[in-house]
Amino acid sequence: MTDASRTPDAGTVRADAVADPATPYALRRLTSVALDALADGAAARGGPLPAGGPEQVAARTRALCAPVLPEEGLGAEDAVYGVARAAAEGAADPSDPHCVAHLHCPPLAVAAAADLVASALNPSMDSWDQAPAAAVIEEEVTAALAQLVYAGRPDPDAVVTSGGTESNLVALLLARERARATGGRPLQVLVGANAHHSVRRAAWMLGLPTPVVVDCPGGRMSPAALDRALAEAAGGPALVVATAGTTDEGLIDPLPELAAVAREHGAELHVDAAYGGPLLFSERLAPRLAGIEHAVSVTYDLHKLGWQPVAAGVLAVADAALLEPLALTADYLNADDDTEAGLPDLLGRSIRTSRRPDVLKIAATLRALGRRGMARTVEHCVDTAAEFARAVDEHPALRRRPGDVGISTVLFRPAAADALDDEAGDALVAAVRRELLAEGRAVLGRALVADGDGRQRLWLKVTLLHPRSTAADLDALLKLVAERAEGPSPA
Ligand SMILES: *Cc1c(COP(=O)(O)O)cnc(C)c1O
């Protein structure tokens, strides 16, 4: 299908056709238009990213879908085609095995298809009379997601969030309320220097004292440093936030040791496992998260190592009663008499009111793959990263950052960068990344991390989340990087 076949034809479009609700009948035709646009856009792009850099992308995108508010509408088909085509042609496409910069996963087809259902039915998860079945599905799924973390506990629970940022915010909110109930000093949060920025921001939003930052030599929180920090915080209510899968390096804090130190000081532990949480699906990899069960709450995302379209976040808590501070009554959503008459009360399961049924795509994915399928897919990503690391180690023109491979993240840089002084070396690393972006050939991340000598250096970052990437994909990627580091690309 070509652009030309989408020319508006006012003669055949009913004036009010665009205002049709999303019935299966109305959607079937538009869905096929959207899928055509996805295919045409991907073909026009021809790689993981549109070539040409920001200005060319902006010009092309505007040509395909501006003006966004025409005086007279184009009709549904042309509008869907134009917007979808523009979005696809100009996408950073995580389904391309060379799009590996961020914790930005290729969404599974099964999840995307189920997400269409969420859009079409539009259940809103804030009251039973908007989401009778979706509420049940959420109850079943959150019970399973809570079990994944807290298998041994009598009554764990989990809520669905928009992602790690919201999960961390809610975790800190619940901890603040527990501290407030003791009537003493305000909650002191302690975070690793390796923690995600959302933890510090949550403390700021919640009006908590500035978090104490704990040393992370080698990228992991030091139990001895935590011990000293807690001794200095002296006695007030404290929440230690550890990380299982750091954003820059995919490293996992020593959870059993940190849990023990926190316990000695009477502090609580929250684990931000936004990245690493899904390791729990795998019997082989779950031991890497040993100790996580000591946490009072755990953040994990399924739109990273869980292949969901954004958003799919989880906050698991060790006991359902820990969610009580979220309880809230609004007469129009969950009046007491309705609740007494047996209508389930959903409002207390989020800080949001209207809420998308993100659980539908999660439910479809978990049923499609099963626990073992989730495990195998996580293992594929982890194993691919180990292979990639070995390939870097064997490559004469590249150097891997020494140390363990973090979950599915590998840091490396051209050996040529090491031969230069620090500043010029970092500039070479940055230039290689930008050149590949501008060519639309590869989307690599960057990470500025301290080396053993205490100096910060810039690294190329690869975050492997592709469920089907192969050794050949990775070889091609290494070849690209090595070529770019050697000098300007041949004309
Ligand atoms: C991605 C990430 C977050 C933020 O999660 P969002 O889903 O982007 O809101 C928080 N913590 C860690 C460790 C992360 O990797």
UniProtKB/TrEMBL annotation:
Any one of the GO CC terms: cytoplasm
Organism domain of life: Bacteria
Alphabetic keyword roster: Decarboxylase, Lyase, Pyridoxal phosphate
List of residues that carry N6-(pyridoxal phosphate)lysine: 304
Any one GO biological process: carboxylic acid metabolic process
Cofactor requirement: pyridoxal 5'-phosphate
Tagged with keyword Signal: no
UniProt cross-references to SUPFAM superfamilies, sorted A to Z: PLP-dependent transferases
Any matching Pfam family: Pyridoxal_deC
Gene3D superfamilies noted in UniProt: Aspartate Aminotransferase, domain 1 (3.90.1150.10), Type I PLP-dependent aspartate aminotransferase-like (Major domain) (3.40.640.10)
Molecular function in Gene Ontology: aromatic-L-amino-acid decarboxylase activity; pyridoxal phosphate binding
Family: Belongs to the group II decarboxylase family.
Name of the protein in its database record: Amino acid decarboxylase
